[in-house]
Amino acid sequence: MSHIVSPTDIEEGRSEECHTSEDESIKIEDDAVELTLGPRGRNVVLDEFGSPKVVNDGVTIARAIELPDPMENAGVALIREVASKTNDSADEEQVASEIAILKSRGSASDARLAAAHEQMRSAEEDAAEWKWKYDIAVRETKAALEKAANVQERTNKETQLREDALREEFSSHLVVKEDEIKEKNRRIEYAEQCLTTLNLELKAAESKMQSYGTEISSLKLEIKVLVEKLETANAKAQSYDKEARILEQEKIHLEQRYQSEFERFAEVHEDGVNSPDLHVLSSKKGVFLVLHGASSLSEELIKASIQRGVTKFNVNTEVRKAYMNSLSNPKQDLVHVMASAKEAMKAVVAEKMRLFGSSGKA
């Protein structure tokens, strides 16, 4: 992996290079000046404009030194500045002391530079450690991203498969539901048709009920009239029964009263004697029948009764027969009307049962 150089690294590199160049220039300057010091001092040839110049003055030598490297020349310029500030008449000891001061400064600079180098190495180690951690974090992040991408891809595939399955299932359910809806619609249409038919039948039944109601009302009126007639007939029958009982009692009383005459009449009849008493008896018998309400009986019945004997004549029975014959036609009419009413009621009940079922709703 390539290393990215920051501006701080560039500044630190330049500072380190400057310090190194200054130290080198100071050493060169020191060595050159030191050669001229003391009793063993040597002369130095300076290459200036014109002819070369031989000198043994340390200050002059310090002023004249120039180096090709700009960084090293900066250190020489520093010594030159110190030398320029030094009096030209100063002795060599003062120059040496100044150089010693410069050396001490250079040593201090070296110490600071070494500390800076140590800090730089520590910083580089920290940076390397952080870079290592960063690389680990980057690798872990990449792995996590790849894993997340794989999980996302797998999830997307599963989601797509599930969605396809749900769509297919929904489509099948939708087809089934559509078929059910069609079936329900057909049933609803059939139910509506049945309802329409039932409404028509109900209207017809209502009209029949109204006609049946009219017929029942007329039948009720007829029944009421016939019941009144029946009550009247029953009252008459009761009165006739009462009169018949009275006549029966009177007949018994008369039979007891005229028993002797009847016996005489029988004897005369057996002897074949035609006496005036027979006409008297016959006239009395006719009076008896007329007085007791038997005038409605036919003359032939009276004669036949007289011929077979008054004792054999049952007035109550004949009256009842005559009354029942007179009531036979109204009774038959009443029975016919009652039967018709029952048939009409049965028809109404059957129609209600057909329309409303066996629950009896009407």
Summarize the structure.
This protein is mainly α and 362 residues long. It contains 8 helices and 2 strands, in the order αββααααααα.
Number of helices: 8
Helix fraction, binned, reads: over 70%
Q: Please describe the biggest sheet, giving its number of strands, its sense, and whether it closes into a barrel.
A: 2 strands, antiparallel
Give me the count of strands.
2
What percent of residues are in strands? under 5%
Radius of gyration: 83 Å
What's the overall geometry? rod-shaped
The termini sit apart by 101 Å
Q: How many distinct folded domains?
A: 2
- Structural class, from secondary structure content? mainly alpha
How do the SSEs run, as a string of H and E? HEEHHHHHHH
Question: Strand order, biggest sheet?
Answer: 1-2
Mean pLDDT: 70
Low-confidence stretches: 1-13, 280-297, 309-316, 358-362
GO molecular function: aldehyde-lyase activity; ATP binding; ATP-dependent protein folding chaperone; zinc ion binding
Pfam families: F_bP_aldolase
InterPro entries: Aldolase_TIM (IPR013785), Chaperone_TCP-1 (IPR017998), Class_II_FBP_aldolase (IPR050246), FBA_II (IPR000771), GROEL-like_equatorial_sf (IPR027413)
Coiled coil: 113-169, 195-257
